[in-house]
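Newbie here. two chains, one complex. Structure please?
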Amino acid sequence: MKLKGVLVGLLCVILPAASWAGDGNGKAQFAQGTELLSKGDFEGAAKAFEAAAKAEPDNQNYQVRAAIVQRVLAMRQSLDEQTDNEKWLNTAKALHAFYDENGIHDQALALANRAHTRLNTTETAVMLARSRLALGMNSEAAEGLRGITQSKIDAQVRVLLGLALARQGQKDEAAKLLTTLKDTAPESAQCEFDLARLHTLLGQHKEATAALVRCFETTPPSGLDAIKEQARTCDDLKPLQSKPEFKKALDTQSKVAESKCSKGPDCGKCPLKKKCQGKDQKSHEDCKGHGKSNAPSKP
Amino acid sequence: MTFARRIVQFSFLLLTLVAVFLVGGNAEAWCPFGGVEALYTYAREGNLVCSLGVSNFYILGGVLLSVLLLRRAFCGYVCPIGAISEWLQAAARRLRIRPRRVPYGLDRVLALLKYAVLGVILYFTWRAGELVFRGYDPCYALLSRHGEDITFWAYVVSGAILLISLFVKVPFCRWLCPLAAVFTPFSRVGLMRIKRNPDACTDCGACSRVCPMGIRVHTHANVTAARCTACLECVAVCPTRKRGALTWGLPRHLDRRGPLAVTSGPWPQAALIAIMLLCIGAAVAATYTFPLPSFVQTRGTAPATTATLYVNIEGVTCRGSANLLTYFLERDDDLEIPGYLKIEAWPGPGASAVHITYDPSQTTPEAIRNAIKQPYFDLVINQFRVSPFQITEP
């Protein structure tokens, strides 16, 4: 009887401890990977994420993270070898978005500088301005955006310039820029997001909320959670975040179709259903990674 | 005769249940109506709607052949819904529930409903390229693993059909089944038939009363009604069958009382079951002998020399995921596969066979494997998409 009691007692201690230790292994390595990544140590981070994924093969989050960081490592290498400018820019955009998302803003800035030096387009100027804004280099961002040829200035450039000016306290000039937007209406969710930030900095909360709603409506369903999370954590939007209209805006659903298979368990409720059937194959191909980036990157 | 038919019905139902619930098979891939639903999308795009396979076409072909030979014997011997309805009717008789007789005129009017059901299903399915009525399908509700796409209405429809089956003979088969509507033109010209000899017939009407499909056998010289399920209940019940009042067989033999005109004994039904099994067996054999891909995508023009990579991929479960595989293969980043590309897939549960034909002068099997496995940055949502596919060699 005593032996049985001892065994049961041991089991009660050992099993939870083993389970805790198992969890801890992956967790510690994942945390280590995240820390290394924030420091820009990609090789070290990849190894740590790989180890976390191996320690907990059922943890989908760990598997995904390990796969993405491995891919980022490969993309960083391929960037040096790529001769095709379009492919080079696409790789740079992917890396830039990844750096932004993970708070590696110095690497994002270095890459944006490299892209702008290599290609010198409005797109690369915007990428550079975005990195500068993320690091609080507002005057440099404004200077860079002012350097863009008048004919190539679009809504995105104006909004980012307005943001840089508003952050420097030049709110009247930023507000003036907003009035010129009537001629060049925002075309993307990214631009709407930045517009919401600008309106918020100018104290125009109603307009800011409306821009956020338009941003969410024009973001594909699979990108919606990420952009809403950005809205919740964006410093520029802080004055708006406590307002009830902001919380209401967060309930906005996407009004655009997915660009690719949503990877659901079946096609039952997939918003891509019609496109998968080839009914709208042409427009599907048009947006298949070739089109303009529609969803916002990390502010 | 009824006993033999019940055995066949029970065997097919048991086979389906074992395949679905124990083996985890996809019953939809073997439904002949699936072939009708998938026809338009397959003809137009070379792809099948989700959950269906080329097996649906083969089984549809096999069943239509059986209909051309035996009329709607498939309904009377194989279809699980028909079997369950008939068993309920038999159970009701034991419970002393008297079957309600539906007036002949009303029966004929109600029978038109199945064409409306067929029209509506085909219109919306072909338009959407998706099994839009799957969630309401009584067959799917009864014979699936009750997936999340089954709606409350599927159980309402199933319950209503089962309930009505207690009081009326096979209501779904007679009035609502869309597959029966498809069978009608084929069944109308069906080869085997029942012939009534007016000289031997006493006009007792027993044959008409016993017919589950409501055919007034005793008023016809030849039963060529499209809805005849060749159950041969009428022949079995005929008091003067030995005098040849009712015979079943080939028309020429029926007229001349040849060897293929039979009135009694186990042979008519044995022959019928054998023909039915041959038709279905041939369809199953064809599915495995000529396994046409149910998903085909081609990019560019084939060069003089091509190579094919044969792989099994986990995660290619339906047309949507096969499309996703195509997007990974047609990626435009540094892992892009240049030149000609043809993807042939057999989506299904577990690892699915995929054949990828490519231009060997422009790419390698390793590059293709990488394109399938590596995460892809989606510029539209500014996020990485991680490949859900695992490659296992064939």
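Moderator note: Residues 2-38 of chain A form the longest helix (37 residues). DSSP finds 16 helices and no strands in chain A. Thread marked as resolved.
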